[in-house]
Design a protein that fits this description.
The chain has 582 residues and is of the alpha/beta class. Helix content is 36%, strand content 24%. The chain has three domains: 177 residues, Rossmann fold (3-Layer(aba) Sandwich), CATH 3.40.50; 70 residues, no CATH class; 285 residues, P-loop containing nucleotide triphosphate hydrolases (Rossmann fold, 3-Layer(aba) Sandwich). The relative contact order is 0.11. About 1% of the residues have low confidence. It is found in: Cell inner membrane.
Length: 582
C-alpha cells in the first residue's frame, strides 16, 4: 500500500538533512510503527506523505509510492489537485495535538462532516448519521452533544476522540496515526486500538503508527522502524525488534519503557498519619445552560506530608477538577472542606475561608506543574523571565538575587543556566517540562501538584523527568499530588493510589496492594488496559470492557443501588478502601 524509499528532508540552510535516506513499506491491512525520541524525524516523515511539511522544509530526494500494482503513484510528484483528492479520503491522518489541529470556529460535527461532504458524495443528513455512528464507536459518552460542541468545550481526551473519528469516518486505505492515544486514558486507549484493528479487518486499511509508547507498539504493530536523528537505526518484525533488539539505541528505548512490575514495591502502609492537604466531602457542579454536570461527588482524600498520592482514572473522572480545587483556581460546592497544615501538629487552615496573608502564604506553599509544556509557557517571555515571575509576584527577592536563584533552579532541573535568555520555542518538550518544574520550585513550595506532567513526552525523556521529580522530592521533602492515566508511572512514584471514576473515588490503596490484588472491576479494567512492551501479553479487552462499561453491569456488590446511589467507600483491609456494598 505504501513504499517509502530513500526519503531525505532538509530545512533550508541546515548543515545536514533532518530525515536522511529513510525507507520502509506497509502492506494492505498491516500496521508499521515509527518509534524514536522527539526530533528523530518521525512526524516529518509522516507529513511528507501528505505533502504538508512545515515552512522551510523540503524533500531533497527519494520517493513515496502509494497504491498497489499499476495504480501506484509517487506522492512526491503528484500535482496539488491530485494530492487534495487523496488527502482525507484515501489517506487520512490523526494529528498529535488536537487543539491546534481542529478549527476553533466550527463545531466538531461540521468539521467531521466536511470530510464526507468533500470526498464521500454524502448529503448533510447522511453525513450526520455516519458521523454520529463513528462518534459512538470512538467512545463519546454523548455523541449528539459532541456533534454540536466547539473544540474549546471538550476536554483534551474528547478532542482527541474527535480527531480519531474525523480521520476514520471516510474509511481510508492508509491511516497515519501520529501519537493517536497520547491524550487518552488507558481504558479508552485500549478501545480505540481495538477499533482501529477492527476497521483494519473490515476494510484492509494500512496503518502507519507514530508513538513513543512501546506498549502500544507491542499491541498494534506488525513491524517496527526505529529512528534516531533522521536515520533508521533498526527495523523488522515487531516480536524481533522488541523481544531481541540488536541496536544499542533500541535497547535503550526498551530499558526506559515503564511497565507495571509483577510485584510492586510498597512505599507506604496506606494510613495517612500526618496529612498536609485534606479533602472532606468535596463536590463540584458545572452548569451549561439547563444541563448540570457533577464533576466531583463527595470526595474524601488526604495527601500525607512527604508522600506521593497518585490519582488515576479516565478523562472526565474529576482528576484535573480536584487539582484545580486544590490550587483554589475554582471553588467547590457549598458543604465541602479543604484543609491545609503547613507544619505537623498545628491547627489546619480552612482554605475556603482563608483570605489576605493566609491565602497568599498558601499560594506560595502549593505550586502546580501543568500537563502541556507547550501551552503553559508564555512564548513572549524568556525562560529566565518565566522562572523569575513567581519571585516577582510574591516580592521574594530583588532582581540581582532573583537572577542567581533562576540560574540555580535551572541547574537543579538539569538545564544549562546560560540558557536564561532563550525563549520556549528553542526547547524540546522534555526541556520545556523541566522549565515548568523549575518555575513551580521557585517559591520553595511544600506541596507540588503535577497534572499529567509526562503524558506528552517520549519514553526516554519521561524517564528523565520522573527521575528528576523523585530526586527533588527526596532532597526537598516535598509532598506530591500526582495525576496520571499511566499506571506504570504511578507504580514507580506513588506511596498511595486513588482510583477515580465519574467524580468519585472507587478504590484507594498503596500500589503494592492495588496492582497485585485490585478489588473494584474498574481498577481491574485500568490495569488490564495498560499496554506492556511485550507481544506475548496483549491487552485483555474483555476485562477492560466490563470494568469501563456501565456500572449496572458490574458484579453485584459494586453496582449502584435501586435509586441510583453509589455504594459506600468501605475499608476492605487495613489501608485498602473500595466502593462496594458492606
Amino acid at each position: 500500500m505504501l513504499r517509502v524509499e530513500g526519503l531525505t528532508i532538509r530545512f533550508r540552510k541546515a548543515p545536514r538533512p533532518v530525515v536522511d535516506g529513510v525507507g520502509f513499506s506497509i502492506g494492505a491491512g498491516q500496521s508499521v510503527a515509527l518509534v524514536g525520541e522527539s526530533g528523530s524525524g518521525k512526524t516529518l516523515t509522516c507529513r511528507s506523505i501528505l505533502g504538508i511539511l512545515p515552512r522551510g522544509a523540503e524533500v531533497a530526494g527519494g520517493s513515496i509510492l502509494f497504491g498497489q500494482g499499476a495504480e501506484a503513484v509517487d506522492l512526491l510528484r503528484l500535482s496539488k489537485a491530485g494530492l487534495r483528492d487523496i488527502r482525507g479520503s484515501r489517506i487520512s491522518m490523526i494529528f498529535q495535538e488536537p487543539m491546534s489541529a481542529l478549527s476553533p470556529l466550527h463545531t466538531i460535527g461540521d468539521q467531521t462532516m466536511e470530510v464526507l461532504r468533500l470526498h464521500g458524495n454524502c448529503n448533510r443528513a447522511g453525513a450526520r448519521e455516519r458521523c454520529l455512528a463513528m462518534f459512538e464507536r470512538v467512545g463519546f459518552p454523548d455523541p449528539v452533544r459532541a456533534f454540536r460542541s466547539y473544540p474549546f468545550q471538550l476536554s483534551g481526551g474528547l478532542r482527541q476522540r474527535a480527531m480519531i473519528a474525523m480521520a476514520m469516518v471516510a474509511r481510508p486505505q492508509l491511516l497515519i496515526a501520529d501519537e493517536p492515544t497520547t491524550a487518552l486514558d488507558v481504558t479508552l486507549q485500549a478501545q480505540v486500538l481495538a477499533l482501529i484493528k477492527e476497521l483494519q479487518g473490515e476494510t484492509g486499511m494500512a496503518v502507519l503508527l507514530v508513538t513513543h509508547d512501546l506498549g502500544v507498539v507491542a499491541n498494534m504493530a506488525d513491524a517496527v522502524v526505529v529512528m534516531r536523528a533522521g536515520r533508521v537505526m533498526e527495523s523488522g518484525c515487531c516480536a524481533d525488534v522488541l523481544g531481541r533488539p540488536l541496536h544499542g539505541y533500541t535497547r535503550k528505548l526498551m530499558a526506559a519503557a515503564p511497565s507495571i512490575p509483577e510485584t510492586t514495591c510498597a512505599h507506604g502502609s496506606g494510613a495517612v498519619r500526618d496529612p498536609i492537604l485534606e479533602f472532606h466531602g468535596v463536590a463540584k457542579t458545572y452548569e451549561r445552560g439547563n444541563v448540570r454536570i457533577r464533576a466531583l461527588d463527595g470526595v474524601d482524600l488526604c495527601v500525607g506530608r512527604g508522600e506521593t498520592l497518585a490519582i488515576v482514572g479516565e478523562s472526565g473522572s474529576g482528576k484535573t477538577t480536584l487539582a484545580r480545587l486544590a490550587m483554589l483556581a475554582e471553588r467547590p460546592d457549598p458543604g465541602g472542606r479543604l484543609l491545609f497544615r503547613a507544619s505537623a501538629g498545628e491547627p489546619p487552615l480552612d482554605l475556603l475561608s482563608a483570605a489576605g496573608p493566609e491565602l497568599t502564604a498558601y499560594r506560595r506553599r502549593a505550586q502546580m506543574v501543568f500537563q502541556d509544556p507547550y501551552a503553559s509557557l508564555s512564548p513572549r517571555m524568556s525562560v529566565g523571565e518565566i522562572i523569575a515571575e513567581p519571585l516577582a509576584i510574591h516580592g521574594v527577592c530583588g532582581r540581582g538575587e532573583g537572577r542567581e536563584r533562576v540560574r540555580a533552579l535551572m541547574a537543579q532541573v538539569g538545564l544549562d543556566p546560560a540558557w536564561t535568555n532563550r525563549y520556549p520555542h528553542a526547547f524540546s518538550g522534555g526541556q520545556r517540562q523541566r522549565i515548568g518544574i523549575a518555575r513551580a520550585l521557585a517559591l520553595d513550595p511544600q506541596l507540588l501538584i503535577c497534572d499529567e506532567p509526562t503524558s506528552a513526552l517520549d519514553v526516554s525523556v519521561q524517564a528523565q523527568v520522573l527521575e528528576l521529580l523523585e530526586s527533588i522530592k527526596r532532597r526537598l521533602g516535598l509532598s506530591l499530588m500526582f495525576i496520571s492515566h499511566d499506571l506504570a508511572v504511578v507504580a514507580r512514584l506513588a506511596d498511595r493510589v486513588a482510583v477515580m471514576r465519574a467524580g468519585r473515588v472507587m478504590e484507594e490503596a498503596p500500589p503494592a496492594i492495588l496492582f497485585s490484588a485490585p478489588l473494584h472491576p474498574y481498577t481491574r479494567a485500568l490495569i488490564a488496559a495498560s499496554p506492556e512492551p511485550d507481544v506475548s501479553r496483549p491487552i485483555d479487552i474483555a476485562t477492560v470492557a466490563l470494568g469501563a462499561g456501565r456500572p449496572d453491569l458490574w458484579p453485584e456488590p459494586f453496582r449502584p443501588t435501586a435509586d441510583g446511589a453509589p455504594p459506600p467507600l468501605v475499608e476492605a483491609a487495613p489501608g485498602h478502601f473500595v466502593r462496594r456494598a458492606a
